Amino acid sequence: MADNTLKIGIGDIELEAALFIPDNAHGIVVFSNSSHKRRLSEGNKFLVHHLQQSGFATLLFNLLADNEEESAEDEADIALLTDRLVNVTGWLQREELTSHLNIGYLGESAGAAAALGAAAALGTELGAVVSIGGPLALAAPVLTDIHAPVLLLVAGLNEEALALNIQVQEQLQSIKDLQIIPDTKDVFKDLGKLEMAAQLATDWYRKYLKPGKQHALRQNQP
Questions:
Q1: Cα 35 to chain center, whole Å?
Q2: CA 197, CA 118: separation in Å to the nearest integer?
Q3: Among 161, 167, 179, 199, whose CB has the most other CB atoms within 10 angstroms?
């Protein structure tokens, strides 16, 4: 079992990361977070622990370097966040400890849009995506380019987010599903709802990340 805190070099910056690899890992889930605060949130810790206990490796890291987090413009720059996520994915594909693992993304907030953007860029190299809320309209131009299966999780009482997620689901051409987490406006503020989201995400990764899993590349294929 490997459990490491490390720095990942992307160009002239270093991104702080935590990598956990259980024995006989089913695949690796990369958490797409735009800030240190989100990466270390109790909600993220809960999701990480749930996935690890289910046999998945995890990579938790910041898409923004420490000196960039004060700039709202950087967080809103989905192209920048997407490029960094693609580069970190390439690093995983080259590293001996992780090169054999199927890769999935879990994104929330701006990180969810970045996860969809990176999924479009990587095509069939990516195994699965789970999005929890997020400004997904920012990823609209690339939604039809996504090949990976996408699970959209959204708080049922957040009407604006629900409407956006429905639009995204309609535009996606890959395997997709939208699950509503009922009776909440924020999945991360209710442990019971977060547990539901964690189980739905884990089931999605079990279906599409575990070794030997095969799936159609497009929703309309058998």
A1: 14
A2: 22
A3: 161
Measured between alpha carbons, how far is 174 from 217 in angstroms, rounded to an integer? 6
Residue 2's pLDDT is 55
Q: Please report the domains of the chain, with CATH numbers, ordered by start residue.
A: 2-208 (3.40.50.1820)
Query: Based on the number of CB atoms within 10 Å of its own CB, is 157 exposed (0-12), middle (13-18) or buried (19 or more)?
Result: middle
Question: What value does the CA radius of gyration of the chain take, rounded to a whole number of Å?
Answer: 16
DSSP 99: T
| Rounded Cα–Cα distance for residues 99 and 79 (Å) | 25
pTM above threshold 0.85: yes
Give all strands (DSSP E) within the chain, no chain letters.
2-10, 13-21, 28-33, 57-62, 103-108, 128-132, 150-155, 176-181
Cα angle 64, 45, 134 (rounded to 5 degrees) comes to: 55
User: What residues contact residue 196 under an 8 Å CB cut-off, 6+ apart?
Assistant: 181
Query: What pLDDT digit, counting tens, does each position of 10-41 carry?
Result: 888 888 889 999 999 999 999 987 654 555 57
Decide the pairing of beta strands 103-108 and 176-181: unpaired
Residue 29 pairs in a beta bridge with: 58, 104
